[in-house]
């Protein structure tokens, strides 16, 4: 399988550190509010990646953090603490907010068929791990204390900007946002590992540390939680593209300074979901959540399908019109599968199966091209092969796509169509049923012909007799 690696800016053959095993880390949500459907685009595409690894036979261990402390509204270590902002907004404690939105996040994941990672670790549960790593960085001379905070010294690295050609001036983020620059930093790119001098007097969550009572920076959380569960050699790290800088850049800086060698081989970044008016937002415009889509009558899996129709490395524009188009297509696919389920299944045609399967795996092997994988699904529906072959393929594809294709189709076919039939047809069907019971097959056939002559199709399925309008 080839994957685009942000680190090398090329598509590379994916080769894990240990044969047959994949260690995968995902930046989890900051649980100060509901996830918007942009956040969830990232989690959907990461879910497809994880499932495809498993599909191809890898034993995957996936770890995700929950950011419940330390994430400031500006990535330049300025701005408000997002969790504190959420708590103030809702007149609750930070931990109440964290619990509520963690639960809400996983409830959305269930609706979108996003598998829960093997390990989910809230940052507030790992304070000792952060302190251990920060202490070591201090000892090794990669970190310094200034104005009460502990900073990572980026000038100690051979290369800090690993993903791109950022210039020092680009880091004047805080200044551009009208927030004062942190004058404690020795270099503009330095970032906080541990805060003791919080700008927020009411910072709720604080812990003892060798540098005073305080709380961790956001970046150190992911490094430590990843290394805690997945060790010093990580195969793949995922997140939305906004995380590449500074978050992932800082993760690499501190992790590699700590372990003294290369940490993660592949960096998988998902481009953003935007609206026609621009960036997806939790505070302005329509706050697009899964619940909002549901309240408007959309099946959350139609949103998942909508995401799969585009490559993860292209930004995607959300509009209700686009979502409606995806819904039409999803409904057509499941209706078609429903009609295939009703046909006499026959045997699996091995040659056809292999050919159609390889179109699917080729698509995903090429940098997770889900759009082409959906084309491969359409090709299965159209293919000149037995229904058994098609259903077997769709079942396999759906282990990765997770669109409930067969379940939805079965529900469609199980709907009581008989109730919509005219009384005359229902009576004939009843008489035919009685004739069959009495083994009077001549009469049964005669009654079937009468029903057919009136414009209806009679079929015997595993669920019993089905009568549909021609
Ligand atoms: P957060 O809860 O802000 O920490 O973000 C959770 C995940 O969503 C991260 O991987 C972000 O990079 C990602 N993300 C944020 N905004 C978007 C967006 N508009 N589209 C796709 N992913 C996003
Ligand atoms: Zn992270």
Compact description:
The protein has about 475 residues and is of the alpha/beta class. Helix content is about 45%, strand content about 15%.
Could you characterize what this model shows?
This protein has 16 helices and 16 strands. By secondary structure, it is of the alpha/beta class. The chain folds into three domains: 13-270, Rossmann fold; 301-414, Cysteine-tRNA ligase, C-terminal anti-codon recognition domain (Four Helix Bundle (Hemerythrin (Met), subunit A)), CATH 1.20.120.1910; 423-469. The chain has a five-stranded parallel beta sheet with strand order 5-4-3-10-11, sandwiched between helices. A four-stranded antiparallel beta sheet has the order 6-7-8-9. Strand 3, helix 1 and strand 4 (59-66) form a beta-alpha-beta unit. Helix 9 packs across helix 10 (320-342), helix 12 (370-382) packs antiparallel against helix 13 and helix 15 packs antiparallel against helix 16 (441-453). The radius of gyration is 28 Å and the shape is elongated. The structure holds adenosine monophosphate (AMP) and zinc ion (ZN). The site of zinc ion has 3 residues, from loops. Adenosine monophosphate is lined by residues 27, 29-30, 38-39, 41-42, 67, 239-240, 242-243, 270, 272-273, 280.
Poorly predicted sequence stretches spanning 5 or more consecutive residues: 171-179
Task: Please state the second-level CATH architecture of the largest domain.
Answer: 3-Layer(aba) Sandwich
Global geometry:
elongated
Question: Which radius of gyration do the C-alpha atoms yield?
Answer: 28 Å
Number of helices: 16
What is the end-to-end distance?
A: 46 Å
Tell me how many strands there are: 16
User: What is the CATH H-level superfamily of the largest domain?
Assistant: HUPs
Question: What ligands are attached or bound here?
Answer: adenosine monophosphate, zinc ion
Query: How does the helix and strand content classify structurally?
Result: alpha/beta
Largest sheet: 5 strands, parallel
Tally of domains: 3
The share of residues in extended strands comes to 15-25%
Strand order of the largest sheet: 5-4-3-10-11
- Portion of residues within helices: 40-55%
Do you know the CATH topology of the largest domain? Rossmann fold
Mean pLDDT: 91
User: For the record, what CATH class of the largest domain applies?
Assistant: Alpha Beta
